[in-house]
Design brief:
Length: about 230
């Protein structure tokens, strides 16, 4: 239990960075809620595991002859109550916030499944072991998609950000070296193409153009001046 909880905390820390949308101001707020839900889930799992293991610990390491057997039978039930009534709710909140936080990156089907599973965990009152498996199954699917689609998503980000600025129609801004390089090459090609367009529009003998918004100024053609 301690090792899995530690691994999950590292998973939360690693998950926050790629899911935050740099173009949405509320992403940081959702990221904090996600972190809080994850920490509360781990804390709830520890609290639920403590009474569930108290009976075995008492028998193995302490003198349990004076311990009420009825109490020992009730301790696991207390652990189950904490897990299925409280801790599972935090798992549902974590799934919901992660799905909302990563909706710009995650595929639509994974986002919808996340919302549905979150609703199940938040609203269902059940002590079935299947409910406890919903959250780890979702984590496995999310990790598999993030790992397998890593290269494809990198290429998509380069393509989507090649216009550079949001006001120029780019869905996202360049956030990697590759995306920045492609954007600058695309911008350079566009400016050089603008010079060709401007030169074709000039009358014979003219070497200076008027102001052109594409190059943010006037263009001068030395060969035409000669």
């Amino acid at each position: 239990m301690p090792f899995s909880a530690t691994a999950f905390l590292w998973f939360i820390a690693a998950l926050r960075t790629p899911l935050v949308d740099p173009n949405e101001q509320r992403s940081e707020t959702f990221s904090r809620v996600q972190l809080a839900a994850g920490i509360l889930f781990v804390a709830g799992a520890f609290v639920a595991a403590a009474p569930a293991s108290a009976a075995a610990t008492s028998i193995e390491f302490f003198d349990s002859s004076e311990t009420d057997p009825a109490l020992l039978r009730q301790l696991p039930q207390l652990g189950y109550s904490v897990m299925f009534v409280f801790t599972i709710r935090m798992a549902g909140m974590f799934i919901a916030v992660t799905s909302r936080l990563g909706r710009w990156l995650l595929p639509g089907w994974l986002t919808v499944i996340g919302y549905l599973l979150a609703a199940v965990l938040l609203l269902t009152v059940s002590f079935s072991a299947l409910i406890a498996l919903v959250f780890p199954a979702w984590v496995v699917v999310l990790c598999a998609w993030l790992l397998l689609g890593r290269e494809r998503r990198g290429a998509e980000a380069v393509i989507l950000s090649h216009h550079g600025n949001l006001e120029h129609g780019s869905p996202v801004v360049p956030a990697t070296r590759e995306a920045t390089l492609v954007h600058m090459m695309d911008n350079l090609g566009g400016k050089l193409g603008s010079f060709d367009r401007i030169e074709r529009s000039l009358a014979d003998g003219e070497s200076w153009s008027g102001f052109d918004c594409a190059i943010d100024g006037a263009a001068y053609f030395r060969d035409r001046a000669a």
